[in-house]
Amino acid sequence: MTPVTLRRSLPLLGPLLALLLQGVLVLPARAASALAAWRISSQGELLLRTSAGARLGAFFEDGEAGRGPRVWIDFPGELSRPRTLPGSGPIREIRLGKPTPGNTRLVVEFDPGVELDPADLRLVGTASNRWKMEFKGLSTRGLRAIGEGDLNRPSVAWRPPTTFRPTTTPVSPEGLPTVPRGRYRVVIDPGHGGPDPGAVGIGGLRETDIVLDVSLQVARLLQARGVQVTMTRTSEVDVDLPPRVSLANRVGATAFVSIHANAISMSRPDVNGIETFYFSDPRSARLATAIQRQVLNVSPGSPNRGVKRGRFYVIRRTRMPSVLVETGFVTGNLDSRRLATPAHRQRLSYAIATGILNYLRGGS
Ligand code: ZN
Predict the structure, then answer these.
(1) Helical segments of the chain, H only
(2) Half-sphere exposure (CA, 13 Å, Cβ side) for 89?
(3) 50 three-class SS
């Protein structure tokens, strides 16, 4: 086994991310793989996208006894689904595995008889999250491109925005839209709770903590405008979905708003954004649009993932206009840092309350 030369041409990224990838910080769960996407081109190049600043190891082993040479790359973070893909031309197969818990290995095994000189192999960092290795001297006859994931997503480097653009979302209770007092009842449903923390993201950020804080604030803001509020939970207890729905149906609510935070794999900190779901009622679509607009207002830079139809139980089985808002990704490097701050959770609360009040006033 020969270590392949690694050449880094660009500076590494933020210290926090670097620490995370080195496993120095205590993670809530085993960190997901730093390998985000890979491709072998028909010209015989291996291209990789990783978490920014990830430290890789690259190795070569000569073929022997009916077995071709192998090149492998080790990544921090554990692969979720080991797999083998058949190659083409001079490549016999590509294997993705976890040689030890908490690690990821990508192996390219060539056909017997293929000759590669390890002195010619270099894994070169071409951007903070991109890598390239040319298989010099490889005959590319019959080689078809193969890969998984999107190589061209942007780097996960992130800096906090220095300015917030002007917004129509109020920042004090006096700025909230007014509605006739005592006319409306709204059910606020903080997702998850108790033994079910919901999504857990960067730095152990828990969905349940975010959504309970935001929900309690939304309730107080609505009450300040004379809206009656029913909460499906007000503390860290686990409430099943059917009781949440039957409660909403029983109190004859004007609207039902379920508040959540989103998550995707820990290896996708580049995924951030706001989305709001409704089931089918056009009034629900209008409520979703009103909330989505306001939440986007207070989340500059976070992508608009849109107002979408969804089949979540709580919005499918409630009989009044109902929506489920995802206030950002606890696994996203942009959203998670914000969701972790009380100041942003307060802005979110004003945004959601304003959206609900605008809907009750007949607008969006
Ligand atoms: Zn959730």
Answers:
(1) 15-22, 207-224, 241-250, 282-297, 313-316, 335-339, 342-360
(2) 15
(3) strand
- Quote the ligand 1 centre to 351 CA distance (angstroms): 19
CA of 85 to the centre of ligand 1 (A): 34
* pLDDT at site 364: 67
Q: Determine how β-strand 57-61 pairs with β-strand 5-8.
A: unpaired
C-alpha of residue 179 to centroid of ligand 1, in Å? 29
Cα 28 to ligand 1 centre (Å): 17
Q: Which residues contact 59 (CB under 8 A, 6 or more apart)?
A: 1, 2, 3, 4, 71, 72, 73, 74
For residue 257, what is the DSSP state? Answer: E
Beta strand 255-262 with 304-309 is: unpaired
285-333: pLDDT as tens digits: 999 999 999 999 999 889 999 999 999 999 999 999 999 999 999 999 9
- From the options 2.60.40, 1.10.10, 3.40.50, 1.10.3210, give the CATH code of 4-148: 2.60.40
**Where are the domain boundaries for CATH 2.60.40 in the chain?**
4-148
Using the mean position of ligand 1's atoms as its centre, give its distance from the Cα of residue 263 in Å.
8
Centroid of ligand 1 to alpha carbon of 292 (angstroms): 16
Other CB atoms within 10 Å distance of the CB of residue 119: 11
Residue whose C-alpha is closest to residue 35's, from 101, 94, 103, 84: 103
C-alpha 194 – ligand 1 centre gap (Å): 13
CATH 3.40.630.40 maps onto the chain at 173-360
- The highest-level CATH class for domain 173-360 is alpha beta
- Can you give the pTM of this predicted structure? 0.57
Q: Which residue shows structure tokens 């993932």?
A: 305
If you measure from the C-alpha of residue 305 to the centroid of ligand 1, how many angstroms do you get, rounded to a whole number?
A: 16
